[in-house]
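#lab-general

N.A. 3:47 PM
ok so I finally got the sequence cleaned up, no stray characters, all 393 residues accounted for. can someone with queue access submit it? mine expired

B.Y. 3:52 PM
send it over

N.A. 3:53 PM
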Amino acid sequence: MFLQKLQLKNFRNYSEASLNFSPGINVLLGQNAQGKTNLLESIYVLATARSHRTANDRELIRFGNSDADIKGLVHRRSDDLPLELELGKRGKKARVNHLEQAKLSQYIGQLNVILFSPEDLSLVKGSPTGRRRFIDMEFGQIAPRYLHDLTAYRDVLKQRNHYLKSLSMHQTNDRVYLDVLSEQLSLFGGSIIVQRQKFLTDLEKYAQELHLSITQGQEQLSFEYDSKLKDIKDRSEQELQQIMDTQLKTQYEKEIFQGTTLIGPHRDDIKFLINGKNVQTYGSQGQQRTTALSVKLAEIDVMKEQTGEYPLLLLDDVLSELDGQRQTHLLKTIQNKVQTFLTAPAMNDVARNLIKAPKIFTIEKGHVAETTANGELVLKTVTYYPQSDKQEG
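B.Y. 4:20 PM
back already:
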């Protein structure tokens, strides 16, 4: 699949915009605060109905306006599909082929994207929260059941934590209701763990191959699902649900004292191993970055395997964070494979030599124009937004 056309209205610092893209590599050039990242963000929001930069939708709406609109025309194997996402005071409205969707979960997955930013290079050495978010965001796009179970799990977890706090403050003493909440949490928790383990197994297969290639066969990469729950390896969904329910009930006194749920997939993590050793603990910065690069690139093939089509790849200023060898491997991997949107201040030598026939947009002083790699104008201005002190990116 690829994004043929994008239209924006009152998104971030874009008043209006209309752009047509290449199915290959699209390069967005410009200095900081010109709108490159905002444009990339709009594609991500169109696909996932949420931003990777903020949880507050109000920040996505151009200063002084009450709503914003993102439209895209997606080419898939069988058809062209119009998508639209409206952001306003009353929340989001999502349309697929001009038909409004009753739930966002019915909308998500129509357009699949992988975002790779400098922050993703810290996936390995960063926090468990970031690694859980990585699984939830990427897998949630291609697995409707996972997204449903994750949403339900979070709802029950919120209720359970609230009830544990009331027990810790002696506002109630109904352990029967706590049993009910534990059973509900275990029902969704067991499903989430099984699905996460399957996703990581699929991801590991492709990441291992990529990692071996980057390291010239010297390093074997593997993953390990790290859970606070005991004895969960190679268990069925039903067995995991029972294990979680049993272990939750043994934690009651401790949980009531702390007023929070202490075990479950919301506290789990991923371990990355190179030649059997934990990269987070023992790996060099270069090994950690190579691991992160292998993981992100492996997502491309996992999404293709799961959906039958390649996703879009969004690269936000990543090249500047990689050395020449890793830049080369990244660009060779994506060439002629996936539609790519790449932001950078300028085309560097590696990119000039490896990217074949890119479509280049230069963003400067409120204008976006299609240009050559040397900055020569190809098309007149294709979009315009007045400069402001707000929401630049």
